[in-house]
Amino acid sequence: MKIKFQLNGQPVEAEAPIDETLLDFLRNRLRITSVKKGCDLGECGTCTVLLNGKPVRSCLLLAVQIDGEDVTTIEGLSKDDNLNPIQEAFVKEYGFQCGFCTPGMILTTKALLDKNPDPSIEDIKIAFEGNLCRCTGYDQIIESVLRAAKLIKR
Amino acid sequence: MEEEIRPLPKFDYFSPHSLHDLSTLLKQLKGGISFLAGGTDLLVNMKKRITIPKVIIDINRIQELSFIEKRSNNIHVGSVTRLNNLIESSIVQENVPLLTEAIRFLASHPIRNRATIGGNLCTASPAADAAPPLLALNASVKLKSPDDEKIVPLSEFFVGPRQTVRKHNEILTEIIIPCEKGSNAFMKLGRRRGFTLSVVSVAAFGIIKGDKFEDIRIALGGVAPTPIRAYKIEEMLKGVEVSDRSIEKAAEIAKSISKPSKRAKRASVEYREAMARVLTKRVLMKIAFEERG
Amino acid sequence: MYQDYLGEVKKLLHGKDYKVVGKNVIRVDAIEKVTGRAKYTTDFIIENALIVRAVRSPYPHALIKKINKKPAFKIPGVVAVIIGDDIPGENQCGYYLDDQPLIATDKVRYIGDIVALVVAKDKESAWAGADAVEVKYEELPAVFDPKEALKGDFKIHNRKSPGDVKVIKGDVEQAFKECDVIVENIYKPGSQDHAYLETEAAIAIPEAQDGILVISTNQGPFRTRNAVARVLGKPQSQVRVITPYIGGGFGGKDTYGPIISSLAAVAAEITRQPAMIVHTRYDSFVYHFKRCPFEIRFKSGATKDGKLKAIEVDYLCDCGGYAAHVIGLLKRAAYHSTGVYEIPNCNVQGIAVYTNNLPVAAFNGFGNPQMLFAVESQMDLLAEKLNIDPVEFRLKNALVPGSRTGTNQLLDHSVGIKELISKVAKKADWVKKRSKQKRWQSETKKRGIGIGCSWHGCGTTGFKHDWAGASVILNPDGSVTYSTGIVEIGQGTITSHAMMVAETLGIPYEWVKVELNDTSRMPDSGETHAQRGAFIGGTAAVDAALKLRKKLNKLASEILKCDEDEITIEDGIAYSLNDASKKISFNDLVREMYQRGISPAEYGFIKARRGYPDPDTGQGDPYAAYTFGCTIAEVEIDIETGEVNVLRLYPGVAAGKILQPDVVRGQINGCAMLGLGYSLTEVVERENGKMVNPSFTDYLIPTIMDKPEIAEFISVEDEYKYSGYGAKGVGEIAFIATPLAVANAVYDAIGVRFYDLPISAEKVYFALKRK
Ligand SMILES: Cc1cc2nc3c(=O)[nH]c(=O)nc-3n(C[C@H](O)[C@H](O)[C@H](O)COP(=O)(O)OP(=O)(O)OC[C@H]3O[C@@H](n4cnc5c(N)ncnc54)[C@H](O)[C@@H]3O)c2cc1C
Ligand code: FES
Ligand code: FES
């Protein structure tokens, strides 16, 4: 099925097989490999994309469902090496280790801060509950989000 | 047995834009239909080959199914309303806070951005978190087929694990929840603190007059093949003095009416029964405490 | 033969403060990881790569009677079906022992043992093909309990045990007679899944000159190369392994990396087309090897003045169908079975036993979490009997410089455990919180506090040589190209290598570029495990950089006409300490090297300093150095539901020089959470040896909501002489201490001791009910 949608602010037209998840479609057809497959069942958060600004699980969407919608992946956050403040915060606060959960974490941060520029730790925990990280123990992720909030406000 | 994760099976896909189009479509199609709402159960089940639909009807583009309204003394919620929209809805918070309370910790934030209330009920998992509060609130659901429409009390909707009275060409269009003033309590016990399926959940709505329970409605999840209303407790408590003893007695009943399936994973039968008791006690205490201050 | 790297570096730097080491820098991998550009195995999307799907045994123990490939070829996309006999080289992928065929030919030994590979043009055909292959089995009696396996008449292999270990010291029998208190218990710490977020995957691509390139999720590119060369029957030079970023390893990809790589390689070699294999999350949970369950009988005794006298330990390791990693972790557990204490009399005997369970893997701690769980539980039990505070009891017995370990290794320096225990206890306010009187509790909740101490030898376990290579090239513009065989699995090691190279050369850290990990660039560096990445791999980096630095100093002294000892290089400028106007930039210096024909490249190569314990007595020096850990946990238990809520953790390490404080904090906090999962929620439920809760919904790793407050870690920098910058390892140590502290805290709270892990809510509930 032919679909048209906005990807990181750019219009995209592409052929999407009906039985393909958005995750597989982004990775295999559009080569957006920052969206990761950690479980394929909605349990881990590595496949997070923003659908009309909200974080969702791309492994639990069909590609054809995004026809006419707006999708953001981490590529939409920065151009070249000019980091977005959220990315800068993750670098400075060591909010990543193996990095496999990181694109999902950063997109989740974006959605959270867009809605709530001054989140409490409790707000952060609720927003990140579905994003597993096996490496960091989460503290430095929380600190990254807090620093990002500060950087954006500046 | 946990199933393998496979690539999605082949299917036909339709995405009607109105209930009218849907009816037309349903008349043409034969069977093997699955409605796709948030997809957070359906796509998982398809990958695991628990469900192999021939046809998927995506109902996300049917605007008529997505609403939250107060009409006379009822709240009407369209079946494709996302759980996060429900949580954020002031109408729901003000009129049926028990529902807000219960789905606040359902799955995780990003899942709730897609998952719908209709999907949660139609999946009919014994552990579905929206079911106990809606049972306790005396909610009913509207089912619509191409040539019929009916309202079914939620207490008659579930018939077994993953089974409901809904026929394959019927769509759940809305959920109707009567508004009543009273106290609410919901508790869920999972196996870790975050992002976890309920082992046992209990929802209760209650009115206390003076020192007595005037009306209590209580429902449990995870203790039987379907979410259940605990009528026995309700009858026992009616008009009874609020006390540790009466609550303790109610909690004992919760335990005795619990009949978890022996095959249910995630916790033993004995633990589920015991937790039905503990959570029932805590939920009733909370109601008693709130009402009496 | 062993260089005092720390001394040499300090001398070259003229005793000045480090410019890079010990600071927080921007990680080498940072920009790629926060922009999503970092490539992991499956991100290398190869046009037309064939998809490989394994056909796996549904039986735990059976003879393979017949394999019929034909039905698979009815599926249009299927290109090849490969069975064991088709393997071009040797059909063997055992880790320590040659007991594991890559593709089983005569019999299967666990559910999931591979019997064939289906290679197809697309995923659907590969799956359908794998379903279609017909395998006839004849079931054999299977055994899942190691004790039964040891006793009964089961023939999984031609011997019951792949290996055993002994540590014998002093006279245990006599010593127990002299003890005033003796405690004896049986402990059963269970399995655990690594549950890294990236599942196992490998891509193999035929290359020129009959070579093959493998890109895969592994923690040991050289071991992977050697394994692939073996199954393909090729010289190691024909196989090139690139290890891209890895989405978490924790040891699991050390064990499974070579296996999955070999599967892809065999498929690519036979079809001469690129081939890839990717595990689904289900595959990963059900088929990749996991932490080894132990059963430990532990007897320990002390005198009434609180001195440990003797231990007698025997234990079984259930290694599953093949030996895989068991031999190493079996031995490591024995060598650490005294805990961080001086114990003059030891009789420790361990044995690994084949069963029809899933085989076991390396996993953070490598046998030590299991053994030390017993050790530290015993410590608390003894302390209680002696009526001594657990911290005080530990301090009385802790190792100090000059102590000898259970293997009789003399620890002459770098032994910071005693100071560490004191500091962590002070930070946690132990004395006050441990006193029962003032403690907060309610009708339904009870609180407790507990301590756990750990140690972990750095480097591979002492029966295998431990070496590493690295290469440093100075480019004509003064920039530096660095290559290591140590893999970036998230731990930040390549950054610390770059830091050490920069510090040693006297240049800014940013000038060092770390190359993609590729076996064709440097000599064998061993695996990225056993806390050896910075400790041994990093020392190889320092070795290479030091060689170049010496040349640079000499050259600078010639150019600047001064004494070699006067030269220092800082921030990319070489100058004379006596006359700062005599200077030359690093770039010019390097260009001069080229012009004078002095080689601007060096390989580093080191071998760890240590011995090999005697096989009969276990006496000897199994590790070059030991890292120490100490964690205190505060818990709150809901006595009606059994839920254990860990409120606070106070971690601490004595890990030598801390190269990057914030990165180490990340390691420690991450380890603490991995340990929390092992303590409370992570249960590998098995039926017939097969995991039956294979999803993140049912295998419960800690979420952000489960995170307790984790205090800033305490560090005792007990530098080690023979490593670059005095660093030891930190990757595993904080993990090990966590469950020990939690288990002891649970006991403190409710007076129930758990002899197995994890301590699930349900278990606590029933234990309290029985009580
Ligand atoms: C990781 C994860 C965690 C989860 N955790 C929880 C949890 O804690 N608690 C909990 O209760 N659930 C949980 N769930 C289950 C799921 O998210 C919820 O049940 C959700 O509400 C389902 O809604 P949906 O819109 O996604 O349903 P879908 O997947 O779209 O549909 C589910 C089923 O209902 C049918 N259906 C949907 N809408 C209609 C309709 N209007 N009329 C007729 N049939 C319909 C579909 O055909 C399908 O069979 C979890 C799921 C995942 C993936
Ligand atoms: S891959 Fe989608 S949530 Fe894990
Ligand atoms: S950084 Fe590895 S999973 Fe989060």
* Number of helices, where a helix is a run of at least 4 consecutive DSSP H or I residues of chain B: 11
CATH topology assignment of the largest domain in chain C: Aldehyde Oxidoreductase, domain 4
The H/E string of chain B reads: EHEHEEEHHHHHHEEEEEEEEEHHH
User: How many helical stretches of chain C?
Assistant: 20
CATH topology assignment of the largest domain in chain B: Uridine Diphospho-n-acetylenolpyruvylglucosamine Reductase, domain 3
Structural class of chain B: alpha+beta
CATH class of the largest domain in chain B equals Alpha Beta
Please provide a written account of the structure.
The complex is a heterotrimer of chains A (154), B (293) and C (771). By secondary structure, chain A is α+β, with helices and mostly antiparallel strands. Chain A has 2 domains: 2-76, Roll (Ubiquitin-like (UB roll)); 85-153, Orthogonal Bundle (DNA polymerase, domain 1), CATH 1.10.150. Chain A is 34% helix and 15% strand. Chain A has a 5-stranded mixed beta sheet, covered by helices on one side. In chain A, a hairpin with a 2-residue loop joins strand 3 (48-51) and strand 4. Helices cover 33% and strands 25% of the residues of chain B. The model of chain B has no long low-confidence stretch (mean pLDDT 94). With 771 residues, chain C is of the alpha+beta class. In chain C, 30% of the residues lie in helices and 24% in strands. Chain C is built from 20 helices and 31 strands. The termini of chain C are far apart. The A-B interface holds A 1, 18-21, 40-42, 45, 48, 51, 54-57, 59-62, 64-65, 108, 125-131 and B 5, 7-13, 15, 36, 38-40, 43-44, 47, 56, 58, 60, 84, 107-111, 113-114, 194-195. The structure holds flavin-adenine dinucleotide and FE2/S2 (inorganic) cluster (2 copies). Flavin-adenine dinucleotide (FAD) binds at residues 34-42, 44, 59, 79, 106-107, 111, 114-116, 118-120, 122-123, 128-129, 166, 171-172, 197 of chain B.
